[in-house]
């Protein structure tokens, strides 16, 4: 259901205060009256949604304000690696296939031969060649060559006859998660070769959606407003459920604090404290909502039944407003020295840099005192790192650093 690009490429434009954020959801002109479910943005302006009813993919290049038809394919879920390469899954079995790949931004699609005739419910890709699909036979279908060939893995659901896999999300090339509507969550750390059921997950609610903001912190959501959160890569979970909602169909987070959950009957809930509290927002519709995607910290797109497309432009609380701050890292990958550049920050007091490795371990913390901060190769071993720029408990930005 919910797919999204890994969060770390998006610039943080606004930092929300702990005050309530009052949001305005505006209905956008839709290209269809059919139900919309899949949703994916490759940046703040360019994104895709699909209608399974009529088998069309729609594209926007202005942040969801207008949409145009861009290819024929009935899709339940989509995931784009870049502006051209994407993967899609479909519940509709036909000659066009239930798994497909595009290399031209969704205009044309190439069929990936499926190992069975099941409906395909979700997809997550880690590169232009590596992608994972889930189907209604409790299987994960993996390709490592862009769809030329596939391998199938069966997930050991405790009640396979009456329950399905519902969502899949990889946080990097090796580590991914699965949810099922019987309340199980599975994890792989070897690129899908094997999957382990996480026994610490509190059962009792069917799960529809999952999202991880980094290697350690993730959320799973589903029926009866159930939301659970992990901060240790799935080892333990805490309850962050939402009251007053029947079912959550999709959950997304922009950063460690700001998140949205959408569900049946037009329900939209927002948190700005990492899920500790949720505030219901007026969506202006009673249509079932199926997906949400952040464009930036103050704006998001929601899609749902009857061609519903909503866009949010937040109005901040009146007390705290931190002007636009921008952060860049160059060169990246780091081969000798890289420079973290910071703009539109007037007050550097208490501004800190935290560096985490791919496992989520904090390996470096330092104070940022000026517009430029130097990172030396001698401080790191080769690998992938995540840089968090913080002031107190507020995260300004998270950047991905590759060290060669």
UniProtKB/TrEMBL annotation:
Q: Which residues form the Secretion system C-terminal sorting domain?
A: 331-402
Alphabetized UniProt keyword annotations:
Photosynthesis, Photosystem II, Signal
Give any Pfam family that matches.
Por_Secre_tail
Read off the SUPFAM superfamilies from this record.
Oligoxyloglucan reducing end-specific cellobiohydrolase
Q: Where is the signal peptide?
A: 1-23
Q: Which domain of life is it from?
A: Bacteria
Domain (Photosynthesis system II assembly factor Ycf48/Hcf136-like) spans: 21-149
What is the recorded name of this protein? T9SS type A sorting domain-containing protein
Q: Which organism is it from?
A: Flavobacterium calami
